[in-house]
């Protein structure tokens, strides 16, 4: 129920629009009741052939209620949708802030399509919480109260009978239908989720599907899910249709009961004959407020499920990187006893890792794939949570520093950098939009990418395409290095930055990187032992544990695993 507390908190910011829209909605229903009541009385009075002047008040009342109904309906839609879209904007800001601050890559239970579903469908479904949930519920309750008060002026018994039918039709019947539909709703949600995931897999893996002849298998699975989805919806629609018919039956029954009860009242003089038609018509108009009621429980159920779905992502983050704002100045990084483990498992990805990185020190972390190198870098940036140990930046524990403040201190170059579908220049300027042109060109030169850019059709203004498909993997890697050099952060994190380069170009780029890094701190993660003699310390990891550490010469003299790896790689390089 936590999501309802958050929604209530967000709704408070739009309280003026929400209250006004509810008032306009209520006045719309009241105008409908007034219009039908006044018109029925007008027709009944006119049948008695009175003087025209005696009908003027009723004529004006009918005109007033008919015009006001349209005006109030327009204002109600304007205010309610305005409040809804503002609420949606607040929900998105709240969610993305929570996602950005808290989501941890330790949590592997979510597939990409699953996260897409939460980012779009679940967040958007919360906007219906007010418009299709709270608003019609409040309007229905107030309408029932006002109508029963109105009927009590004619007969207390009629008012009580009306309330019984109103409560059953608007509140009890929808609950019964919802309980009958509950299993179907859950089944529908599971099938829709599986359909979304299947479609995303098909779209993202279209090439592999055709290459490995999986098209028929995917189509068969899709058609099976679509058939199951349609079957569930048919069952749901059948129950809803049954509910609509029961609702209509009770409305008709109530009108019949009223007419049966009112007939002797008119004949006995306890009720004026001109009101005989008015009471059933007033009832019909008031029941307009109950039309949205069958869907309210579905909306609340969707909001609750969406809330659970959203919290399952944004609560998977680490509390260890959610501190207060704290400006970092000295940039020393000290790690002691760091442990990171897989979710719902006792297996550690990193175990008892320690590192001292005073400002200006350069450390290489080497080892085969799966040894925990990349996990360590992502933990430093707060994208993965650690379970034991301590990370201290600038003399302050991570828990005391805001996550955004932490990330300002790092420049991270991934082995698979992402580039947006825009120009080369705009992709590079993401790192620092305010950098001067001279420093911008210097960074491009140091990354050995200027000639490649000049050869593009429009140079810096060339559109790279999605994920930079217009240039090669090695050129993408050099662009990523250029982008990193543009950002002037004190600690550089390099995750296999030269993995896509050939041996000759790799040596050139490594030299340029070291020149660009200058006196800044650096953590270089790699399995290729190139340029290790430039590092102040080398840490050899395997299965998340430190096996050897020291300088390049110290590790070679040790004749251990590092020496064996270096000797093998040197032999391959010489052969190349």
Present the secondary structure layout:
Elements: H1 2-12, H2 15-46, H3 52-102, H4 112-125, H5 128-152, H6 156-204, H7 206-211, H8 215-267, H9 278-286, H10 293-314, E1 333-341, E2 348-357, E3 362-366, H11 373-380, E4 388-393, E5 396-397, H12 403-407, E6 410-413, H13 424-429, H14 437-446, H15 450-455, H16 473-486, E7 491-495, H17 503-517, E8 521-526, E9 537-542, E10 545-550, H18 552-558, H19 561-575
Parallel strand pairs: 3-8, 3-9, 6-7, 7-8
Antiparallel strand pairs: 1-2, 1-4, 4-5, 9-10
Helix pairs in contact: 2-3, 2-5, 2-9, 4-6, 4-10, 5-6, 5-9, 5-10, 6-8, 6-10, 8-9, 14-16
Number of individual domains: 2
Low-confidence stretches: 316-323
H/E topology pattern = HHHHHHHHHHEEEHEEHEHHHHEHEEEHH
- In percent, how helical is the residue content? 55-70%
Name the average pLDDT. 80
Radius of gyration, in angstroms, nearest whole number: 35 Å
The global form is elongated
**What quaternary form is this?**
single chain
How would a crystallographer describe the biggest sheet?
A: 6 strands, mixed
The chain-level structural class is alpha/beta
CATH architecture of the largest domain: Up-down Bundle
